[in-house]
Amino acid sequence: MNWLVDLIGTMGDREALVDSSGEYSYADLSEQCSKYRAEFESQIKQGDVVAILSDYNFYSISLFLALLDINAIIVPIVSEINEEIKDRIDISKCDFVTKLDKNGKLDLTKMKCEEKHELVNELKANEDSGLILFSSGSTGKPKAMIHNLNKLVESYKGKKTKKLKMLVFLMFDHIGGLNTLLNSLAMGARIILPMKRDAEEVAKLIQKYKVQILPASPTFLNLMLIGNVAGKYDLSSLKMITYGTEPMTDGLLVRLRKVFGKVRFLQTFGTSETGIAQTVSRSSDSLEMKIDDPNLEYKIVNDELWLKSKTQVLGYLNAENESFTDDGWFKTGDLVEDVGEGYLRIIGRNKEVINVGGEKVLPSEIESVLFELQEIDDVLVKGVPNAITGQSVVADVVWNADDDKKEVRKRIRAHCKALLSSYKVPTKINIVDSVSFSNRFKKKRIL
Asked: Which residues of the chain form CATH 3.40.50.980?
């Protein structure tokens, strides 16, 4: 029996999780895990590749644990797009596809299995469980990456048992969401699962279940500000907000601290390829963080953060390992500043840097300046092609006052000119109802 599944079985009636169907104990979780094992035992075996077509709920988590327990290779897929689902099943070369109805009934479909990828065969030969995740595909075809799931789960062993209530915000097929799940289970925490990911729903759950820890992206946290959920609901139970998946700006952090004054803010960092790192923020008011993780090394090469982790992927199923060096360093694509005393500051993504006539412009710098204007609810800065300078700076702005748009643009430009170099001042300002972000609540800056 896997140590995590065994641990869950010892926790008895301790509160485990809440989803849209009800509230469950660790005993319930252990029992449902055993039921699924008994149900598929004659069909699914160690080393089989099994897709779970579901987001988080009591039943999908139980199934995940049951598959982990027999050392299967798990492919969580959270999508409603049939073509995307089919593509991920095909790339993973699944042996089985599983679906769950609202009562947890297991629908198991056996697939015509082709010859497996050598990395899958390696896991099977070593009798290790595996995890296949897909990149967001924002700049090309999604990459299928494969983890040794036993090694990943092992990194959570030895956590102290804590009576915490944590909301799992990121999805089942996201390394950040899985990190929250595994961390919570290893601590015996109570997990709150939102039925839908919007600011009102999350705020209602925080109020109802006295959630103490909220992990989210800066984009989603700003949606909570725009929706004024702190003024509508009692969020006083919150002790910590962790943020990651995209850069936070100084301007947004200042706003969040005003609304959530007593809450501790912690910047997290991780990648699908290397897992989530243990980090320490200099303070709740600071965007400077320290990577303090015994399982991970880092270095900075030409302003880019490189990582080497004990829990990093074995490789890709459908792509070359171009992001990895021959000696195992993963080039994250994140640009950082070394600010001394072991602290780093993330300043952007190298693919999102805007090149204006040879001058490099970071979208986060301009967004932070624009957030100083209280009439701006949200902003997204991006680069667009320009025949003369190569690229020019464009800002999509959500303006919360009923002002003349021409005057708004004048005011925004004047504000930027006073604080930024001329090549950083947006050449075009779009007044929009909302900025563009993905279903992972990350801003979409790349055209």
From this structure: 196-267
Paired tokens of 304:
């880019």
Helix (H) or strand (E) run with residue 73 in it: strand 73-77
pTM: 0.92
d(CA 416, CA 394): 12
Which residues is 280 bridged to in the sheet?
Answer: 290
Sheet hosting strand 330-340, strand order edge to edge:
279-281, 288-291, 343-349, 330-340, 304-309, 296-301
How far apart CA 413 and CA 430 sit, in angstroms, is 12
Instruction: Tell me the C-alpha to C-alpha distance, in Å, between residue 406 and each of 184, 414, 420.
Output: 50, 12, 21
pLDDT, one tens digit per residue, over 58-78 is: 999 999 999 999 999 999 999
**Residue closest to 16 by CA, chosen among 120, 163, 170:** 163
Pairing between strand 359-361 and 73-77? unpaired
Instruction: Give the residue carrying structure tokens 């991006």.
Output: 382
Q: What percent of the chain lies above the pLDDT cut of 90? A: 88
Query: Among 184, 176, 292, which residue's Cα sits nearest to residue 245?
Result: 176
DSSP code, position 278 = P
The CATH code belonging to domain 196-267 is 3.40.50.980
**Contacts (Cβ under 8 Å, ≥6 apart) of 128:** 71, 148, 149, 150, 151
